[in-house]
Amino acid sequence: MNIAIIGARGCVGSALVKKLITTTGHTIIASYRPEEGVGVAHERVVWRLVDLGSDEGTERFLSAQNSIGPADVLVYLVHSLDDRKFEAMDRAFADRTGRIARKVGVKQIIYLGGIIPKKELLSQHLRSRQETGKRLGAHGVPLAEVRASILLGPCSVSYRMVYWLSRRFPVVIMPRWSTTKCSPIALEDAVAMVAALIERRSDGHEIFEIGSETMGYDELIMRSGAVVHGRQSRVIYVGWFPLAIIAWVVQTISGVPRHIAAALMGSLKNDSMIERNRFIEVVGRAPRPVDETLRELAQVMAK
């Protein structure tokens, strides 16, 4: 099959390209933007510029205008957090992509989004993740929507915030809402899930929640501290802590831009724990334990 990946130069996309090269015989149509440049060179990887801001640019990427023919499966990994108007941009990109995918004959879309809590007022970030899935699936192409919480990987912005908070601050001052629940999962497991779904046809708009273990965000920081320092980070809870200050601290210690940190940290007020974990059902094995993943990542980050 021809597998198109929009967002192929991102954290998940880069790992997915490498996995598909080594484990499948599929041809990969991988997107890049002018400021990014192309990624890994391989005979089965075709790098194409993509312009999701226009019908023509999107269709050119997905259609038979490519020398290898149109995409059979589209993996959609776009999230415009680096733009301050990311909600509107995400809606427009997803709607256009779903519509053009239907036009050119894409058989399935796979989208990696976030776990959406029930009966809660969603953060701007999670609201955008949910809306992106709706827009992608609104045009009739079967959609497999993978919903994940925090991805644990060296290139994951969420993990980098956890790592640097636990490394720099053996004692971490956090708001009380940091006890909200999350279900972290290793980046490689999220990639394995997406890769497995390429071989599995979805019926309509199907949701696949994935995660390893469920814990509080504060517990994740403490467990990361145990790996980094040999003892758990201590967390002191305060009733009120301005998000702007947290975002400034995160930018200072990790380099994650404040507006991105604020969007992600704002989502921590929502639980992002799995209700029905479909990882084993699709991949055929259990996800990696969180502590094992944290130990391995701490060694990578320390280099």
UniProtKB/TrEMBL annotation:
Cited SUPFAM superfamilies: NAD(P)-binding Rossmann-fold domains
Protein name: NAD(P)-binding domain-containing protein
